[in-house]
């Protein structure tokens, strides 16, 4: 009881740290925003509004509310979503190297987005064209996952081994098709757009997309928390789960479907962002143990912290430019995971 109370306090402290980092990320960048600027934005003065300083502050306000705030909020949502999906994937397929992209979700989404970009579906100023790439990415991810489920059925149930093998095959197939489309594309602008999207970016997110991701994250997280004991049992193996009165096949399908939906939303809005779902759950388990109630909560918070920091770094690392966030998460995540492997060889 006392230990659980301590974990709650640590979680609250981590949440406060994430809030502080988020505020810092909103205020810093190519156009720095000071506390005085914030004071004016919150309580605008009529005298300043029509001056040269007022025009500058109106630009600052636009940058804050239409660019930085939705971007940082999306980083929080995406980081939390990918981390909890990674934790659930590693338990449901009983593979410590699993992450949200194991089932071919990323490659399927990339293929859908590539088709949209090459065909010009996402070009234009209308609402329909604006949703072209996310919708096609979501369709691609969903179709890829459907094929993986079909390939992984053995003796009228989903086999975890076949699931991993099918995911590897579909990943390779979708990646090959995406590369083929890029190869035959004649427009260099479209090729660059595909390359940037597949490396991940939070630059073009809107408040609507942020709202969709947070609603999906809240629903899925609540479901996982309510079924944390089932996840604990499934991590010990199918026999242990059946002994405890749990149907592992039904739970596995339900949880993988939820992981697919949540990850597909993330990928369709922000592109491919790797290593969050692979690395963060292992870090969390080394800190709070393997009980999924705590693993899920801490993974969400630490995943949000990780991606907010990576996104801030992507904006400020190179002046007047931006590094794709997928590159930074890989550059940071690879050494972190290597350290985890070296220090936890017996447990992984």
TrEMBL record:
A Pfam family reported for this protein in Swiss-Prot or TrEMBL: FecCD
Q: Where in the cell is it found?
A: Cell membrane
- Gene3D superfamilies from the xrefs? ABC transporter involved in vitamin B12 uptake, BtuC
Which UniProt keywords are listed?
Cell membrane, Membrane, Transmembrane, Transmembrane helix, Transport
Name the membrane topology term: Multi-pass membrane protein
**UniProt xrefs under InterPro entries:** ABC_BtuC-like, ABC_transptr_permease_BtuC
**Can the keyword Transmembrane helix be found in this entry's annotation?**
yes
Classify the source by domain of life. Answer: Bacteria
GO terms, molecular function: transmembrane transporter activity
Similarity remark: Belongs to the binding-protein-dependent transport system permease family. FecCD subfamily.
The protein, known as: ABC transporter
């Amino acid at each position: 009881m006392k230990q659980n109370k301590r974990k709650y306090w640590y979680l609250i402290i981590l949440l406060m740290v994430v809030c502080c980092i988020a505020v810092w990320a909103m205020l810093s960048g190519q156009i720095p925003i000071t506390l005085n600027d914030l004071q004016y934005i919150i309580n605008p003065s009529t005298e300043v509004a029509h001056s040269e300083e007022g025009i500058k502050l109106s630009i600052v306000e636009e940058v804050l509310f239409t660019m930085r705030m939705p971007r940082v909020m999306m980083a929080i949502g995406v980081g939390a979503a990918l981390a909890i999906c990674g934790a659930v994937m590693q338990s449901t397929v009983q593979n410590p190297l699993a992450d949200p992209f194991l089932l071919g979700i990323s490659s399927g989404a990339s293929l859908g987005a590539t088709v949209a970009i090459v065909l010009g579906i996402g070009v234009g100023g209308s609402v329909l064209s604006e949703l072209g790439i996310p919708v096609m990415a979501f369709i691609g991810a969903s179709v890829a996952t459907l094929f993986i489920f079909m390939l992984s059925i053995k003796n009228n149930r989903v086999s975890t081994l076949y699931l991993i093998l099918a995911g590897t095959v579909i990943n390779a197939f979708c990646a090959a098709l995406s590369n083929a489309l890029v190869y035959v594309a004649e427009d260099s602008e479209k090729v660059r757009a595909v390359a940037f999207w597949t490396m991940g970016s939070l630059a073009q997110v809107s408040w609507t997309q942020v709202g969709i991701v947070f609603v999906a994250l809240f629903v899925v997280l609540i479901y996982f928390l309510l079924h944390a004991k089932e996840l604990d049992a499934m991590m010990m193996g199918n026999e242990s789960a059946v002994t405890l009165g749990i149907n592992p096949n039904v739970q596995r399908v339900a949880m993988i479907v939820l992981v697919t939906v949540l990850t597909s939303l993330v990928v369709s809005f922000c592109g491919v962002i790797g290593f969050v779902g692979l690395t963060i759950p292992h870090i969390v388990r080394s800190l709070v143990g393997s009980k999924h109630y705590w693993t899920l909560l801490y993974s969400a918070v630490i995943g949000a912290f990780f991606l907010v920091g990576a996104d801030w770094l992507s904006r400020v690392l190179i002046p007047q430019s931006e590094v794709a966030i997928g590159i930074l998460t890989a550059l940071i995540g690879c050494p972190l995971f290597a350290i985890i492997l070296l220090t936890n060889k017996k447990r992984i």
